[in-house]
Write a structure and sequence with these properties.
The chain is mostly beta strands. It has one domain. 0% of the residues lie in helices and 48% in strands. The protein has no helices and 7 strands. It has a 4-stranded antiparallel sheet with strand order 2-3-4-5, with no helix packed on it. A hairpin with a 4-residue loop joins strand 4 and strand 5. The chain is globular.
């Protein structure tokens, strides 16, 4: 098992990253009502996950195991007082981690 941080900034962003031997396209968007949400597409642009809020304490991949995700995708905050990354904390005080299987 290894833990890798996916580098983020506190801006809406699109990037491609290899996780568990699979290339995935991430889109992270700030939505005023929902906070940060993530969409994940396959390398061939097939939508896999849409509009999932970035929250702590859960494996964001868990409900989608049937789509072939391995490992865990987790949000970690430096401040334990909140459950969600704030608008300006993404990549600073809040981190997106991949934990390999």
């Amino acid at each position: 098992m290894s833990i890798s941080e996916i580098p983020l900034t506190a801006d809406n962003q699109h990037f491609t990253v290899q996780l568990g031997g699979r290339w995935l396209r991430f889109t992270l968007l700030w939505r005023d009502e929902s906070g940060w949400v993530v969409d994940i597409h396959s390398e061939s642009d097939e939508p896999l996950i849409s509009g999932v809020p970035l929250v702590t304490g859960v494996d964001l991949f868990e409900p989608y195991r049937h789509l072939g995700f391995s490992g865990e995708l987790r949000v970690l905050l430096d401040d334990d007082a909140t459950l969600y990354p704030g608008k300006t904390s993404l990549g600073k005080r809040s981190h997106l981690l991949y934990i390999s299987a």
